[in-house]
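User: Hello! I'm new to structural biology and keep hearing that structure can be predicted from sequence alone. Could you demonstrate with DNA-binding LytR/AlgR family response regulator? Please show me the input and the output so I can see what each looks like.

Assistant: Of course. The first part below is the input, the amino acid sequence of DNA-binding LytR/AlgR family response regulator. The second part is the output, the predicted structure written as tokens.
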Amino acid sequence: MINVLVADDELPAVEELAFLLGRDERIGSIHRASSGAEALRTLETESVDAVFLDIHMPALSGLDIARAISRSSHPPAVVFVTADEECALEAFDLAAIDYLLKPLRAERLSRSVDRISDLIKEGTPAPEMITVDLGSTTRMIRRDDVTYVQAQGDYARLHTAEASYLIRVPLSDLEQKWAEAGFIRIHRSYLIALNHVQHLKLAATGPSVAVAGAELPISRRHLPSVRDKLQTTRIRPQG
């Protein structure tokens, strides 16, 4: 069971998050704090695997708490919960494993619990983060959230379940750098994450693969290697 601490200076926000977490059977004890000082006191007296921190709290902010606990020998996993996207870069500099935007969605929160569960398993590596720009806002996204990548000239568009992000990196560079993370080239314009593949389709119009709901073409040149990889992961072609 995962024991958590929820810290927010707004009591309704604390109770909402505690309620949503309580519906997850993987969650054990749920401690509550309505200030940064109370959160630190709880962390000194209770065994906590993960903390869900609001960023903007009076006196001690969520960022202040994360800095304080990062100095401990076995710090809990940190998830920031906020309505403010502006602090994402600083949050991930503090090794946060996730950054949830209010209003919260149950399915998005469940993915955070997935990440906490993975992280506390012995030997699980920290996720690779990618810096992306959205207008004047800089965000950090996890590489394992990327379902596929689309070439756009000298740029690449990273597709996730929630949005897409343009980065100034050629697709060929990502193909080499991300190969060990389970990304394979299927077409001159596409790189896919194997763990997000739903099925391979062989049709008269040409082979394709479904990735997170998107139907993407496979070039004839790449088809043999794609089939080999997918057979290894037990994804069989459809007629």
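User: So the tokens describe the shape?

Assistant: Right, they're a compact way of writing down the 3D structure. Reading them back into a model, for example: The chain has a mean pLDDT of 87.
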